[in-house]
Each structure stands twice: as C-alpha cells, then as structure tokens.
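note to self: dont lose this again. the chain is below, predicted strucutre after it. 409 aa total, dont forget to put it in the shared folder this time
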Amino acid sequence: MLNSYAVQKKNYFLFSISFAFRNIAIGIFFLVFNIYMIELEFSSEFLGLFLAAGNISMCVGSIPAGILVDKINKKTLLIVSTITAGFLFLLQSIIVDKQLLILISILYGCSFITLMNITGPYIMEFKEFEKEKNLLISNRAIALISMTVGSLLGGYLSNVKIYFVHQEYRSALIVSAIIYMLAAMPLAFLKDNYKTEDIDYITKKQKSNTTLVKKNLKNIIIFSSVFFSIGFAILLLPFTNLYFKNRFNLSITTLSYLLAVIQVSISLCVYAMSKLIKNISSKKNIICLCLSVIILTIILLLVSNLIIQVILFIFISSLFNVISSAFLNYSLENIDGEIMGTTTGIINTAYNMSESIGIFTASILVGGYHFNFIFILSIVSMIIALFFIFISNNNKISRSNIDDKNELL
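---
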C-alpha cells in the first residue's frame, strides 16, 4: 500500500523545492545564454544548430527515457538526471569549442527529457492527497513562477563580476549551473511512496512494457494525437516578443515591461486555476478549457487593440499551460500504471515534434507579418485536439499492481 499521508506530503514538498530550484536555474539560463553566445561571436546559425541538437536529442531520447522511468527507482533517476543536467549547464558555460558544445547540447537534451518524463508519473504517486486534485497543474504554476524569478535573477547576475570569471554573462551561467545541481539536494531526502513489501510485489508481478503498451495502444495513440495538436497550436507563444514588437511597433523598453507583466500574470493565473477549479483534469473540464481557448483566439483574431490583445494573450497562454498539464494527468489516469513513464515518453515525443514544426512555421509567419494566419492555424489545431479528446476513453484504468494485491487481501 501507499506510505502514510505525512510521508507523501514531505516527499511532495521536497520534490517541489527541487523543481523550483531547477526552474530558477533554467530561467537564468534562458535569459542569458543566447546573449552570451553572441558576445562570444558565435554566429546565429551555430546558435540555431546548438539549440536544434538539443531538441532532436529530446525527440529521439524521449521514448527510451520513458522506458527507463518505468524500470529504475524514481528517486535515483531524479538525482542522477538533475546532477547530470546541472553539470552539463556548467560545461556549456565554460567550454567554447563548437563540436563539444554540440555534444553537450545533445547530452543535456537526453537528461532534460528524462526529468520531463519522470515528473508526471512521480507526481501521480501522491494519491493520498485527497483534497489536492490538481498537483500537475500546481507543479506547472511552480515552474512558471520559478522561471520568472530566474529571469529576474539572471538580469541582476549579468552585472555581477566573479573575480576568476572574465567573460561577461558567464558568471550568471555558472550560478545557474550551481543552482541546478543544488536542486538534487532535497531529492536525497525522498522516501519511497510505496512500502517496501509492495515494491517487491510490483517487481515480481510486473508485465513487460511491450505487452502493456499493446494493451493500451489505442489510448496512447489518441493521447499522443492530442498533444501533437496542442504542441502545434501554441506556435505563437515562443515569439511573443516579436509578435507585440512587430504588430504594435513597441520600443524595447516598453516590450520588456510588457513581457514581464505577461509572464507574472500567466504564472498567477495558472496557480489560481489549479486551486479554484476542482478536478480540473476531468474530461468535461478539459473540453471546456479547450473551447475557451478557441473562443478567445477567435476574439484575438478579430480585435486589434493592444490592451485587449495582452489580456487575451495572458488568458490563452494560461489555458494552454493548464490544458497540457491537465490532459497529461487525464492520460496517466487512463493507462496502466506500470507504463506511465513509457507513455509520457511517447506523448513528449509527439509534443516536441509538433512544437518544433510549429516554431519553424511561426518564425516564417511572424517574420512576414501574417498574424491572422497564425491564429487560424491555432484554432484549427485546437479543434483537432478537441476531436481526439471527445473520442478518448475515460475508464480510469491506471492502477498499480499494488491495487490488485490489496483487492486480494
């Protein structure tokens, strides 16, 4: 059976601290790294290649990483992946050889996708939180808030000089790597969510991944199709800065303040929704959220006022964050518990592929000022996602072998 409520509460608290530290580090890194690379006189083409290498390794490594999540102790995998990712952050901050940087980007992609794949299945183990139904959405809110803190901290650290660091911006990147590795410390105090005798029972009775994937294949295909559609629907979000700058001819100063307001507002909205909407990952609620995105995007398409567009953009971005987390929760509830990691790996592969296609498409459309076409593509993608959500099975079949054992007792 599951360990006590107190044990699970402590585990979730420790995991959340680690998760927050990790996203603070990522927030610093995202703000500073591109500027740092340009300062080192790397070309924009190499920067694109560097980022693409990491994205490709995430796509290729997602399913193997998911299988690993199902086979290895989650605490061990969390600690090893966090330390590895932090160390690779450090190497990216001090190495300037192009070939080595590409290799580091590939390795980081593998470690990061492992952390992505383990988050959902690990949080799903906290079943004793009967009053807390939206842990995955709360977790997403923590990520957004932490990354915002990281961005603010990165702006400050960029002006701080470390006596043995001579390159501008490098000190901020080194601090981000240290924070990333420190995120492993709370994980060392985690206890197993299941009791020892039940872990032994799972190991003895566990079926092969292949057998369980075949059994759940229809649901996995439907869930992956939803995430593929959602991944493409958010094609404008990575270009928020360029969209508002190009469409409304904003100055850099105004744009920086506007983006800060948008980011903070999105974080607060996601957190508020996780607390205010009960059972947000139910099929009915997810459908309502998707319909809300479609309606708001249609309004965004028709209204060109800056203030209204900013407000709509905040709500749409918040809803996308909630929908992706809520549907992941829904997906993991409707597949066998022993293949949560594998399923998450397949889902993330679909999501990363469509997001990459969406980013490439959006870069062309934003550059050509074809904003309305972006909104139309987003609406069509969400309608497709809605179709797959409608035909998905809501059987709540996700159970561990422990539940089978308890039924026999």
